[in-house]
Amino acid sequence: MRAMVLKRIGAPLVFEEMPDPIPGQGELRVRVEACGVCRTDLHVVDGELPNPKVPIIPGHEIVGRIDALGADVTGFQIGMRVGIPWLGHTCGICPYCVGGRENLCDRPLFTGYTRNGGYATHVVADARFAFPLQETGAAAALAPLLCAGLIGWRSLGFAGPGKNLGLYGFGAAAHIVAQAARKQGRTIYAFTRPGDAKAQAFALRLGAAWAGGSDEKPPQPLDAAIIYAPVGALVPTALESVRKGGVVVCAGIHMSDIPSFPYSLLWEERQIRSVANLTRQDGIEFLRFASEAGIETSTKTYPLERANDALEDLRAGRLEGAAVLLPPDA
Prior knowledge:
By secondary structure, the chain is α/β, with parallel strands linked by helices. The chain folds into two domains: about 180 residues, Medium-chain alcohol dehydrogenases, catalytic domain (Quinone Oxidoreductase, Chain A, domain 1, Alpha-Beta Complex); about 120 residues, Rossmann fold (3-Layer(aba) Sandwich), CATH 3.40.50. The chain is built from nine helices and 17 strands. Strands 3, 4, 5, 8, 9, 16 and 17 form a seven-stranded mixed sheet that branches. Strands 12-11-10-13-14-15 form a six-stranded parallel sheet, sandwiched between helices. A two-stranded antiparallel sheet has the order 1-2. Strand 11, helix 6 and strand 12 form a beta-alpha-beta unit. Helix 4 packs across helix 5 and helix 4 packs across helix 8. The chain starts with a strand and ends with a strand.
């Protein structure tokens, strides 16, 4: 197979030829048709997440077709279209797994971080953590749903039922969540980098009632805010815009330090919550919702060997929506 490999933290990925992986017991192998480029991949490459398995093939927004099955795999067939997400394995026996919170498993494996991911022509996955996908829709359009969509969906649930919702950072996750929230009857207020007129116009095209810089106040108090940008300074900023009893959800896996702020911003029963990973139930619920609601993704595609370019475009904020890698012959 061919893959883009992270051999050293902070270094560019290297394009390599290697033997096709063989699925073990309970695993399946997928011929990758598309793999989304997530901000979490940047955090892995840049060393902002601890203890990655290096060398590692990044990528965890994977769409492809099964081309090999390991022993004891049931419910899947060769040729079936599946999605492979960030959460790649859980122990099943720790208190979090037993208590229905497998996203907090004590001994997890994560696709593209502690087990090889989808910046490749093939990937092996734990069959229990593969989602059957519909046959309609281009693979590149479906790929961002596997993380930007799933984490967005979980963060939307944590935001509660309030009508006025602020989204800080209008990238891959927010452009999906904005559509989901509008289907639920919410009003969207989009916050971008100050002066980013292009991102603000994108948000307005997707139905936001207002779009402005993160240094601006929305025209009315928010019931909740979700922060997708990895910028800790946005936490007190968002608290200032949230009404009494509102919630600020930090949706990223990594964020810069949150600066000190006066207690008055948190008082009156405002809350700050974080989102960690996902559960398989999140995937089942969101993929069904996305199909029924007609959620569409905005993507820019790159050949697999240009993964470094895609990562740099993401880092620089040059993308509208999500970047997606297409392996050879995809």
